[in-house]
TrEMBL record, chain A:
Reaction catalysed by this enzyme: sarcosine + (6S)-5,6,7,8-tetrahydrofolate + O2 = (6R)-5,10-methylene-5,6,7,8-tetrahydrofolate + glycine + H2O2; sarcosine + O2 + H2O = formaldehyde + glycine + H2O2
Organism for this UniProt entry: Xanthobacter autotrophicus
Name used for this protein in its record: Sarcosine oxidase subunit beta
A molecular function (GO) term: sarcosine oxidase activity
One BP annotation, GO: tetrahydrofolate metabolic process
Protein origin, superkingdom: Bacteria
The protein's enzyme class: oxidoreductase
TrEMBL record, chain B:
Domain FAD/NAD(P)-binding: start-end pairs: 172-427
Pfam families in the cross-refs: Fer2_4, GCV_T, GCV_T_C, Pyr_redox_2, SO_alpha_A3
Annotated ranges, domain GCVT N-terminal: 610-880
Protein name according to UniProt: Sarcosine oxidase subunit alpha family protein
Molecular-function annotations in GO: sarcosine oxidase activity
Length: 417, 1003
């Protein structure tokens, strides 16, 4: 792999950039692999990278039905934080944030992880109680998160309207300074390039249409739009389409899929210094490096696989954004889009083994799995390689819906992303 | 400034109405009917902006909404300034203040232009390859620098002075686009009384016909035909004409959303008018007649100010009476530019045509160019000039033989034409499938998914007669008539082009910078680099190079990149793919989208019938879901704490009065009502007698508590269900969900009656004394009307459902009265109650009182992970019922674990510290991080009745920890507590029966 650096960039600048290599190959699928990851999103490509890098499994492939990063990995609003309430989630997301902190160097790809701080607004007494609960819990878990008065919040985020006469005045905020954003495409491409360099085959335009199983029930391979491929281990990492792919192996998942929308404004000069979230009024906003205001909306009320959500959902979000930032009504929406998110009953992911031998699943990240990408990929690789979960993902079993040992972050705080 | 480039005559501008605005502080003259772009050009201004990345000088490229370069800040006065407006669509209005963007110190002298020198380094995706060392520099140095450089204009920083409104409309046929196809469609569709809406983004309807010099339709000039069509349409009562209105989004169920610019074109708008109006239209049928966009040509330095699209040159001349230059070179690969050249010549300008096609491939369009020099078989290899074009460098080119000797054609304007791209955005947004037509090198609508049809250039039809006929047929078809009509248009429209990706050059292709995406500064080289690096999917190329992601949404660049990609990959275009078009078609203001939903209308405030009384009595309020509720009633000099203490004391010692009207109320009625509640709640309902109340916890399927409330049985088939304030809509939806999907066999109706009944709570030892004189038809005596009874009777002469219930631990009544009579009843009770010191109390005192008595609040003691057993209310869950919502989940192994978090009380050991709600609880505060947390504080108050703090908490295995010492977080560290029972006042519950337990109460 040709290393990226300022010197390689300058060298190439003199050479008309003729010397850059492909960031990943375009291989034809082999007849068999030691393991297959279905889904070329951040989670799938990351898992392949760690399988090759940390577990020596290099004869593996990532199968992607379209182009890598074309799913939620390339559609999300890129909010990253780890100030989750429960020990299990805090450990998982903090594992990810620690990896984020060194990811550009690890991958030799600038993923633009920007720790600009994530500010979560409290608008009522219930929010205040809930956020303080988070702040205290995070403190005891060694995760940064601090409680702020409205004035302190405004100091940190000057555009914020803390006037007491808005519909839902700001009563305080929780700030995770280490939270922030990253460049989503770069994460996908960085993992793809890293995995490819370690020998992983990244196969695009290759849709899995069936999972084959042997007489003992264990997986034996997949049927794809590019032919059949044999393997003894399959890691499913297909986000919104998990129910469908797991259905191919006869496993019913406790998931519902919804369209989730986002939008960006036209690019403007820096005017928004951090990531701001308001769960009470349903608004998420940050400014991208390019200058666009990136705004996350909610999910549709009804389950669907249509990547086009209704305008009323975006409208509701912009209502909230303009209530908090009345100066933005003259800004313009440039693009809006949707992605299909897979939601579990307790709003926490499922990462682990399944009732089918050789079949592993990583799903249920719902509206908030981008932030987990490196951490999730890392422990999923461990699970696939060792056929047992990493201690960090051990609680995130499929079985918990049977036993009742839920990790209900949403119930605890009604927090989305 | 003088209008040096205004032609002496012609154009659709009104020369009798001059106007002036400023651009970067300098005055610019124009006429009514000008766009800002046409006025700038008339004043000889070519340099209008700087590009995003390289800060290259840029001019006006187009004459419409596809403009990538000419983005200006518009200032219409205080609170009315905004960035990134396209000069080509802003109507010239006297007094506007316009300025260019993205430069420092000035447009002419921009330091940022060093980026252009650095362009060999700043190629597509360069930032992914560097800025990684040292690690900490990204946040601190590199990123802030990149950010400061990025972004075009400056966001407004003061609230908007304008208003926006929404309008819903239904019609039979919505026609989008009022060019020839759209006009013909609207005429046909409206012939027989069908309701038609015709919308066009431009100020004037007529589309391309407004720029026709010689065309005639059915024997009259194009302009006359347009005027006649518009008169006809305006005369039909069933037609709504919406100029300045862009259809920006095509959503599911034929939902098309338009935005109408109402006042931006007015110098002194009526203040009653909104700035923009958003139309949500639900047409039965849609005719898309959105035309086509001309493609630029790609060659070295094709972005100099003065280079514009050939059709734009034509439009500025014919429609606006402006010469974009005096010496114009048209560079083209097809026929349409010949019409532009002919019109430029007719306007007296010096014209040359450079055609990339060999002489032999030039068709009948040649006749249009009589008297014009044509350099056939020539390529363009560059341009000259700095901040304005001075010449085009051309050279003969023969396929297979290469590029010949260069020569420079001096010019101050170049009209470039690379062919046409149908505007299929709305069709694609409707989820229709595009198909590729190689003969016109473009995607056109294929299979429809919704009720729409395309007509004219947006469908790849370019001849005027054919466009008109197609428009007519589409309009007629959409109206259900399937009529047809022929139109005689002359002269024949010059059509056809030989697709060219990047023009052949004799330069080192590694060095040539031929721009595809002008705004984002993406060159053909960048596309090649992306492919070299393995980005082969069109979406990857787009994301890696940012081609097509600028504010013009790729209208002039997408096709160019796609064509080039197909050439590099040696794959036909349809196999390379096209990107999906998503709303909006052009950027839409947030204001238009939100309409009037600001302030109070953002989320309507709900107030209870007694709200005004509370306002008059000085209450402070809190938001509780959509409601605004009285929080406490401070007397002069009292802070919240003092007020709440006084209110609580009054309830415990005498009587308090509280507005509980926000509680959700649902009337459950029908022969199966009891059976229904028996399934919805975990406790038993069948045997509850009419006249009695019961407390119910409602579970979700997962077995966790979801809502609670008292239910009164009024008759065998009638229950009055109460819910929490915030939970009312959820509970009704939950009930309906089960009634409609799980148990459709049950004969039950659930109706919200929250707003029908106001609820006045009278609580305290003297509650009955206050109530007694007003009630008729109900015996209030203890035995006759015990705790948890309900009676129907009258109070103050109005009907009441009177419940003997208590959420304070004191003897209490909840008086349901029709909302309209609430104030009269309340005032009667309040006046009479004065003799007992009756005290109005708010939600805060209510919270404290119930916590003293150990009553939970759903959402505070519960968080969606709590079972009845966890709260010590396991006894409420029937062991014998066959089924109820949540039963199966309660049987899961985890629900029986001993270490589940259970409700307990906490007493601060120091007797002073009021714990933080949300604080975490540990056994050993000295342990290492991450610590083992046992639970958290759910409620915490300084108890006025007891004179010391009380707290409720959920603690792992809490009920086995009575008396244990634990540690609770504080902002500074930890404080020590003892675990107690979660009831602090009157554990035996005697006070509700009027038994005084004074001993337990301190003052
Ligand atoms: C609008 C939006 C905003 C969001 N905002 C945030 C945020 O701010 N912060 C955050 O943390 N998270 C956010 N998320 C969630 C986050 O994007 C996802 O949780 C995460 O990206 C999912 O993991 P992934 O990247 O691997 O998924 P994906 O990128 O969706 O990867 C799954 C891949 O599987 C492929 N696939 C599916 N079926 C098959 C098949 N049969 N064969 C082969 N391949 C298949 C798909 O094509 C896709 O590429 C957001 C999501 C959306 C939609």
């Amino acid at each position: 792999m040709r290393r990226f650096s300022i010197s390689s960039l300058l060298t190439e600048a003199l050479n008309g950039h003729q010397g850059w290599e492909r960031q990943w190959r375009n291989p034809t699928p082999k007849a068999a692999y030691d393991a297959i990851i279905i889904g070329g999103g951040g989670h799938g490509l990351g898992a392949a990278y760690y399988l090759a890098k940390e577990h020596g499994l290099t004869n593996i492939a990532v199968l992607e039905k379209g182009w890598i990063g074309g799913g939620n990995a390339g559609r999300n609003t890129t909010i990253i934080r780890s100030n989750y309430l429960y020990d299990e989630s805090a450990a998982l997301f903090e594992h990810a944030v620690k990896l984020w902190e060194g990811l550009s160097q690890e991958l030799n790809y600038n993923v633009m992880f920007s720790q600009r701080g994530v500010l979560m607004l409290a608008h009522n007494v219930h929010d205040v109680q809930s956020f303080k609960r988070h702040v205290y819990s995070n403190r005891l878990n060694g995760i940064d998160n601090e409680w702020m008065t409205p004035e302190e919040a405004k100091d940190f985020c000057p555009p914020l309207n803390i006037s007491p006469d808005i519909r839902y005045p700001v009563m305080g905020a929780a700030l995770q300074r280490r939270g922030g954003t990253a460049r989503h495409d770069a994460v996908v491409w960085g993992y793809a390039r890293g995995a490819d360099a370690l020998g992983v085959d990244i196969i695009q335009n290759c849709e899995v249409i069936a999972i084959t199983r042997g007489p003992d029930g264990a997986v034996t391979g997949v049927e794809t739009s590019r032919g059949s491929i044999k393997t003894k281990k399959i890691g499913v990492s297909v986000a919104g389409h998990t129910s469908m792919v797991m259905g191919m192996a006869g496993v019913r998942m406790p998931l519902e899929s919804f369209p989730l929308q986002a939008l960006v404004s036209e690019p403007v000069k820096p005017c928004f210094p951090c990531v701001l979230m308001s769960n009470a009024v349903h608004a998420y906003i940050s400014q991208s490096d390019k200058g666009e205001l990136v705004i996350g909306a909610g999910t549709d009320q009804y389950v669907s696989y249509s990547q086009q959500g209704g305008l009323h959902i975006t409208t509701h979000t912009l209502d909230a954004i303009c209530e908090l930032f009345p100066q933005f009504t003259r800004m313009k929406m440039l693009r809006s889009w949707g992605g299909i998110v897979d939601v579990t009953p307790d709003r926490s992911p499922i990462v682990g083994k399944t009732p089918v031998k050789g079949l592993y699943v990583n799903c249920g990240w719902g509206t908030g799995g981008f932030k987990a990408t490196p951490g999730s990929a890392h422990v999923f690789a461990h699970t696939i390689a060792r056929d047992e979960p990493h201690p960090i993902n051990a609680p995130f079993t499929l079985d918990r819906f049977r036993t009742g040992r839920l990790i209900d972050e949403a119930a605890a705080a009604a927090v989305a992303h | 400034m003088a209008q040096s480039n205004r032609l002496p005559s012609g154009g659709r501008i009104d020369r009798a109405k001059p106007l002036a605005f400023t651009f970067n502080g300098k005055s610019v003259d124009g006429f009514a009917g000008d766009t800002v772009a046409s006025a700038l050009l008339a004043n000889g201004i070519r340099l209008v902006g700087r590009s995003f990345k390289y800060h290259r000088p840029r001019g006006i490229l187009t004459h419409g909404s596809d403009e990538p370069n000419a983005l200006l800040k518009v200032d219409r006065g205080p609170g009315r300034a905004d960035p990134n407006n396209r000069a080509t669509v802003i109507e010239a209005v006297g007094g506007l203040k316009l300025s260019s963007q993205n430069h420092w110190p000035s447009l002419e002298h921009d330091i940022g232009a060093v980026n252009d020198r650095l362009s060999p380094v700043l190629v597509a995706g360069f930032y992914y390859k560097t800025f990684m060392w040292p690690r900490s520099f990204w946040d601190k140095l590199y990123e802030p620098k990149i950010r400061a450089a990025a972004g075009l204009g400056v966001a407004p920083d003061v609230p908007d002075a304008d208003r926006y409104v929404h309008r819903n409309a239904h019609c039979d046929v919505l026609v989008v686009g009022a060019g020839p196809a759209g006009l013909a469609a609207a005429l046909a569709a409206s012939e027989n009384g069908r309701r038609v809406i015709l919308a066009d983004e431009q100020a004037e309807m007529g589309g391309s016909l407004l720029a026709e010099r010689t065309a005639t339709i059915d024997g009259v000039s194009a302009a006359q035909w347009v005027a006649h069509a518009l008169t006809t349409l305006a005369g039909r009562a069933n037609v709504t004409l919406l100029p300045r209105t862009t259809a920006f989004g095509y959503y599911n169920h034929n939902h098309v959303v338009l935005t109408e610019r109402v006042t931006d074109h007015l110098e002194r708008p009526d203040p009653k008018l909104p700035r923009e109006r958003l139309w949500q239209v639900r047409p039965a049928e849609v005719v898309i007649a959105t035309g086509a966009h001309e493609r630029p040509l790609s060659f070295a330095d094709n972005d100099r100010p003065g280079i514009m699209l050939a059709e734009s040159v034509r439009t500025y001349i014919n429609r606006y009476g402006v010469a974009p230059g005096r010496r114009i070179v048209f560079a083209t690969n097809g026929a349409s530019a010949y019409a532009a050249a002919a019109d430029a010549k007719a306007a007296g300008l010096d014209v040359t045509i450079v055609d990339t096609r060999p002489e032999s491939a030039i068709g009948p369009e040649k006749a249009l160019a009589a008297g014009i020099e044509i350099l056939a078989g020539h390529t363009v290899v560059g341009s000259t000039g700095g901040k304005g074009l001075t010449g085009l460098i051309v050279a003969p080119f023969t396929a297979g033989k290469g590029v010949g000797a260069r020569r420079t054609l001096p010019c101050d304007c170049a009209g470039i034409s690379g062919g046409w791209t149908p505007s299929v955005h709305l069709f694609s947004q409707s989820r229709g499938k595009l198909i590729f037509r190689a003969d016109i090198d473009a995607f056109v609508p294929g299979i429809s998914v919704q009720k729409e049809r395309s007509a004219g250039a947006c469908k790849g039809t370019y001849g005027l007669s054919a466009i008109l006929a197609e428009g007519w047929a589409a309009g007629s078809g959409a109206a259900g008539a399937d009529g047809s009509r022929l139109f005689a248009a002359a002269p024949a429209t010059p059509t056809g082009f030989a697709p060219a990706r990047v023009l052949p050059t004799d330069d080192d292709p590694k060095k040539v910078r031929a721009f595809l995406d002008f705004q984002n500064d993406v060159t053909a080289k960048d596309i090649r680099l992306a492919v070299r690096e393995g980005f082969e999917s069109v979406e990857h190329v787009k994301r890696y190079t940012t081609n097509g992601m600028a504010s013009d949404q790729g209208k002039t660049s997408n096709m160019a990149a796609l064509g080039l990609l197909s050439e590099i990959l040696e794959k036909p275009i349809p196999q390379v793919g096209t990107t999906t078009f998503r709303p909006p078609y052009t950027p839409v203001t947030f204001g238009a989208i939100i309409g009037s939903a600001r302030g109070q209308l953002f989320d309507p405030i709900r107030t209870a019938p007694l709200h005004e009384w509370a306002v008059e009595h000085g209450a402070k309020f809190e938001n509780v879901s959509l409601w605004r509720r009285a929080w406490y009633f401070p007397k002069a000099g009292e802070d919240m704490h003092a007020a709440v203490a006084r209110e609580c004391k009054a309830v415990r010692e005498s009587v308090g009065i509280f507005d509980a009207s926000t509680l959700g109320k649902i009337e459950v009625k029908g022969p199966d009502a009891a059976e229904f509640l028996n399934r919805i709640y975990p406790n038993a309902w069948l045997k509850l007698e009419p006249g009695k109340c019961r407390y119910g916890l409602m579970l979700k399927e997962d077995g966790f508590i979801f809502d609670d409330g008292v239910v009164a049985r009024l008759a065998p088939d009638l229950f009055h269900v109460t819910t929490t304030t915030g939970g009312a809509p959820r509970v009704l939806a939950h009930m309906e969900d089960y009634l409609q999907t799980e148990w459709p066999d049950l004969n039950v109706f659930a109706t919200s009656t929250t707003e029908e009944w106001a609820v006045i709570a009278l609580q305290g030892p003297k509650a009955r004394d206050v109530l007694q004189p007003f009630v008729t038809g109900i015996d209030l005596a203890g035995e006759a009307f015990p705790h948890m009874a309900v009676r129907v009777g009258e109070i103050c002469g109005v009907p009441t459902r009177l419940m003997r219930v208590s959420f304070t631990g004191e003897m209490g009544f909840e008086i349901n009265v029709p909302a309209d009579h609430a104030r009269a009843v309340w005032e009667a009770l309040y006046d009479y109650g004065q003799r007992f010191g009756i005290t109005p109390y708010g939600t805060e005192a209510m919270h404290v009182l119930r916590a003293e008595r150990g009553f939970i609040i759903v959402g505070q003691e519960t968080d969606g992970t709590v079972t009845p057993e966890d709260l010590g209310l396991g006894g409420m869950v029937s062991k014998v019922k066959r089924d109820f919502v949540g039963k199966r989940s309660l049987a899961r192994p985890d629900m029986a674990l001993a270490d589940r978090k259970q409700l307990v009380g906490l007493a601060s050991l120091d007797g002073r510290t009021v714990l933080d709600e949300g604080a975490q609880i540990v056994a050993d505060p000295a342990q290492a991080v991450p610590m083992t947390m046992l639970g958290h504080v759910t409620s915490s108050y300084l108890s006025p009745s007891l004179g010391h703090p009380i707290a409720l908490a959920l603690v792992a295995g809490g009920r086995t920890r009575m008396g244990e010492t634990l540690h609770v977080t504080t902002p500074a560290g930890f404080t020590t507590v003892k675990v107690t029972a979660p009831v602090f006042v009157d554990p035996e519950g005697k006070r509700v029966n009027g038994v005084q337990t004074e001993g337990a109460l301190h003052a």
